[in-house]
Write a structure and sequence with these properties.
The chain is of the alpha+beta class. The chain has helices at about 10-15, 70-85, 90-95; strands at about 20, 25-30, 40-50, 60-65. A 4-stranded antiparallel beta sheet has the order 1-2-3-4. Strand 1 (about 20) and strand 2 form a beta hairpin. The longest helix is centred in the last third of the chain and has 17 residues, at about 70-85.
Length: about 100
Amino acid sequence: MLELKDFMPVNFLKKEKFTGSHQGMRFRMEKTEVEGEEKPKLGVCVWPEPYGYDATPKEEKEKILLEFDADGIAKGVDWLNEQFVAQASRWKAASRR
């Protein structure tokens, strides 16, 4: 399982995207400006290996928006772990390609 201690803090995410992978599941966290919202959000996305974010079709990606703060990052890690368990066969199939 993914652990919060392995993720970058808010100050890093203010300037850079954070990407990684875990047993066939790729993920990305980034600061996201949302139209009509005063404050930025934390965008969290998952998709199957083998391709990077830009090379993966939109329909293969799943995203959520959370508060852009330390609590949002913790909730994002929880969501990533939930996706890893809930879609285990998807990630296993991707890692065998």
